[in-house]
Structure formats: C-alpha cells, structure tokens
Amino acid sequence: MKSVGLEHYLIVCALLFCLGLLGVIIQRNLIVMYMGLELMLNAANLALVACSHFLNKLDGQILVFFVITVAAAEVAVGLALIVAICRRKQSTDVADLNSLKL
Amino acid sequence: METTLFYIFAALTLLFGFLCVANPFSRNPVTSAMFLVLTMISISGLFILLQAFFLAAVQILVYAGAVMVLFLFVIMLLDLKEAEHTHVRKVALVTGLVSVMGLGVMLVLSIAGSGIVEAPAKRAIGDTKLLGQLLFSKYLLPFEIVSVLLLVAMIGVILLSRKEAK
Fold first, then answer.
1. Cα–Cα 20 to 30 A to B3, which of A17, A54, A85, B91?
2. Cβ(A44)–Cβ(A13) below 8 Å
3. Other C-beta atoms within 10 Å of B109: how many?
4. Which residues sit opposite A93 in a β-bridge?
5. Angstroms from A85 CA to nearest CA on chain B
6. What are B54-83's pLDDT values in tens digits?
C-alpha cells in the first residue's frame, strides 16, 4: 500500500468542507446549520495541521490553537443569538425568520 | 499500520460528518449533535497520526466536551421537537447537491493534480513543551489578544441571553 502523503489529508479536508457546506445549504434548522459551520472550521484545522506536519513547522499548529479558541467563542455567541431568536419567534426554522422580507 | 489507520479514521470522519449534516434516518438535532462528537473524535485520531498530540487532546476537550455540552444544553433548553413536517425542499436539495459536488470535484482534482509533498525525514512533533515555548515567545501578543476576545464573547453572551427587564 502506498504511504500517506499530504494530498491524501488535503482531499479528506476538501470532502469534509464540502459536507459542512452541504449541511449549511440543505438544512433548515438553525442549530444543525451551525454544526455544518463547525465541520467546515474543522476541515480547515485539519488542513493546517497536515501542512504543518509535512512542511516540518509548528506554526500551523499554533494557528489551529487560535482557530479552536475563536470557534469556541463563536459557538457561545451564536447559540446565545439562537436562544434569543427562539424566545421571540418560538421556532428555529430559518424559513420563519422573514421579518426583513419585503 | 499508519496507512491503514489513516484510511480508517478518514472514512469514519467523512461517514460521521455526513450523518451529522444530512442524516437520512433521523431529523432529531440531538442525533446530529452526537454524530458531530464522533466526527470530532475521528478528527483527533487524524491529529494523532499527524503527531499533533497536544491539539488532539485540545480537540477532544474543547469540542467533544465544551462545545457539545453547549449544543446539547441549547437543544434541551429550547425543547426542540423532532422536526417531522419541515421536510427538505426539493429545489434546495438539488441545487445544494449540485453546487457542493461541483466544488468538491474541483477541489479534489486540483489537489490531486498538484505536486506531491514527500514526508520529511525529521518530523515536527507537536508536544506541549514545543508548542508552549512557541506560544509564549513568538506568538505572545496574539495569545493575549485571544484572551481579550474570550472576555468580550463572554460579556456578549451574558448580555444577549439576559431576560429583557422592561
């Protein structure tokens, strides 16, 4: 069996990113859309770690550390927004959020 | 051995990721959250294969621990019923699948067509000591800024989730 190279990892990242994007596009529940966003962030993290490993530099892993921190903050703020929306609209379906529609 | 483990973890990551965002059997958000945990654990397995041991531990602690508890708390707090009647619209499904598959094919072909990077003989090992030295010397300023960001996020969350007084 051929040994695993950088492009194997990058292909996994690309496919994982596409799955996250698919979730954001086809889901209508705000919380599950958020999980798609998390998948996309993790695909980027995996690409950074793979590049850091194969280019023999640790800076990529430091960047992933910061991305994880920012993602945690983003999830906290986003879920608070979802709770606020749900209190007002009694629903987490994106189709119900049409107050700004003409 | 390493090659086999890579294929196992990669297949698990993609399978659980798919079941998280587009589960054909269940439309319950709790199921999606559980599959998201499994995806994160598979990704941390890939991190270990890439010798990023500290990040693998952080991934499990932060995602499978903190973020997932947050997701489950919100799902339980809002008491979301299983969204049976909100079926996925056909138009959204078709356009989403077509555009995402187009993007995926483009990315995979461009990655596969680029030059192959060989694994270096001496590998960078992401253990706690080396990462810590780098974090507290070269990246000290971003580290401090991130701590301020976390404080701002915490204040924002408290303000947003407060009951309106008037």
1. A17
2. yes
3. 12
4. A29
5. 10
6. 999 999 999 888 899 999 988 888 876 655
Calpha distance B7→A11 (Å, rounded): 12
Cβ separation of B47 and A73 shorter than 8 Å? Answer: no
Cβ atoms of residues A68 and A2 within 8 Å: no
- Take residue B46 and report the two structure tokens written for it: 């890939």
Q: Please state, in angstroms and as integers, the Cα–Cα distance from residue A17 to each residue in A41, A44, A75, B23, B125, following that order.
A: 8, 8, 18, 17, 26
List CB contacts (< 8 A) between A83 and chain B: 74, 77-78, 160-161
What is the domain partition of chain A in residue ranges?
6-93
Does B124 contact A79 at a Cβ distance shorter than 8 Å? Answer: no
Query: Does domain A6-93 bear CATH number 3.90.550.10?
Result: no
Contact status, residue B40 vs residue A37, Cβ threshold 8 Å = no
CATH code, residues B2-161:
1.20.120.1200
Domain locations along chain B = 2-161
Which helix (H) or strand (E) segment holds residue A38: the answer is: helix A30-54
Helix axes A59-89, B128-135, angle to 10 degrees: 80
What's the pLDDT at B56?
92
3 state DSSP class of A93 = strand
pLDDT at position B118 is 67
